[in-house]
Amino acid sequence: MFNVVLIEPAIPPNTGNVGRLCLATQSTLHLVKPLGFSLDDRQLKRAGLDYWDEVNVRLWNSFSDLQRAQLLDTRYFFLTTKTKRAYYDVALRQDDFLVFGRETKGLPETLLAANTENCITIPMHGTRSLNLATAVAIVLFEAVRQQQC
Ligand SMILES: C[S@@+](CC[C@H](N)C(=O)[O-])C[C@H]1O[C@@H](n2cnc3c(N)ncnc32)[C@H](O)[C@@H]1O
């Protein structure tokens, strides 16, 4: 349904959990290298339970490679704490790409600067950021909810 992109994910259980979220929403999981783990990682598979092998996973050498392989009118939304536009104020469409950053450093500043119009945030208080898989769940299920309206 949707496309979830993890740029350089580092923590296997997060990616395993995101895989389950993608399976549950019939979304494709795009992983942009370098990954901080092997796709055979035990923790990754444990977090993905028996389902990991059913997840539609695509592996990319770079985000540019991913973009080059999509249609020109493909829409990308970049999830970051560094904007004020809330994710629920955007009308998300099937086939959109929801792009998330690495656990330790977030999305590259250059990517955010080049896409300011399409940066969105999950408003929150009292913490610098949410866990990666939690952030994916919030935005992905909002996208699914919007399709039911
Ligand atoms: C653990 S966070 C990265 C934290 C990093 N220190 C930073 O400042 O961006 C990993 C990813 O989850 C997503 N994320 C976490 N909290 C978010 C929020 N409140 N709004 C939007 N995205 C969020 C972003 O894509 C982020 O790059």
Structure report:
The protein has 149 residues and is of the alpha/beta class. The chain has helices at 12-24, 42-47, 63-68, 109-113, 132-148; strands at 3-7, 28-32, 57-60, 76-79, 97-100, 119-120. The radius of gyration is 14 Å and the shape is globular. The structure holds S-adenosylmethionine. S-adenosylmethionine is lined by residues 79-81, 100-101, 103, 105-107, 121-122, 124, 129-130, 132, 135.
Average pLDDT for all residues: 94
**What is Rg?**
14 Å
- In angstroms, what separates the terminal alpha carbons? 15 Å
Give the biggest sheet: 6 strands, parallel
Taken from the alpha-carbon principal axes, the silhouette is globular
- Helical fraction: 25-40%
Bound ligands, each once: S-adenosylmethionine
Could you give the count of β-strands?
A: 6
What is the count of DSSP helices, taking H or I runs of 4+ residues? 5
Strands side by side in the biggest sheet: 3-2-1-5-4-6
What are the segments in which pLDDT stays under 50 over at least 5 consecutive residues? none
Report the β-strand fraction as a percent range.
Answer: 15-25%
Give me the strand/helix succession: EHEHEHEEHEH
- Derived structural class: alpha/beta
